[in-house]
Amino acid sequence: MITAQWMKHFGLSRSPFSKELADDELWIPSSREGVVASIVEACHEHGHVLLTGAPGVGKTCVLRAVRSRLPDDGFRLTYCHNATLGSRDFYRQVCLALGLSPKATAAALFFAITTHVEDLNNQSVHPALLLDEAHLLKQQVLDHLHILANYGWDSKSMLSLILVGLPDLDARLRLSRNRSLWSRIHTRVELGDARPEDTVEYLDQRLRSAGCSKGEGLFDSDALALIHEASDGRLRDLDRIATNALKRAGRRKIKRVDRALLEEIIDES
pLDDT tens, 87-98? Predict the structure, then answer.
């Protein structure tokens, strides 16, 4: 693999802000560790979870950290991200994600899923269904979710639902029509914007993991303050601004990003 000149300039072995990272390389700030612990604990207790936050605040990083901390021999985490389907196609998607053959009717799909969940529990494996972009779920799907989690006359917790989405998902679930589902979700977490120290910690960890011993020292203090202000600490924006700043600094043979260079990048964004 050819290393770009700007990466060589800063002694980087790879692009520091690429999303192509293994779960164990992900950065979770100390301020988010409690969130990860709460979700992991809910899964161990066979409960349901609601995780909301604005785009880019790190919901996916939190979920990947959860995945890495749940033991493979006791849990089956299934990820579904197409939230715009009707109820039958939703069940088909879940079947495919579970490795089951999709059936013709919604009733047959539902039976296949629930039977599979019961089989996993008989093998001492607890399944957790992670529904990303859940704010986009159709109402007919939301109407079914609490039924999907009902086993043994609602006396057995055989399946955990993890609903992930934008903040309006919380308000939607509070509607009286969704009360049966809402009342079953005991772990409810909202990710707010990152703190300035989270931004510094993130830049430092990502740069050091890519081979730069200086870490966040590649940005002066004014540049660090500005990059946090411009991005609101949202990771995708941090990745884009920091990468573009390092590329420009590399082309100019500059060893440290200052406020003036960063202002150029932000003005062009």
Answer: 889 999 999 999
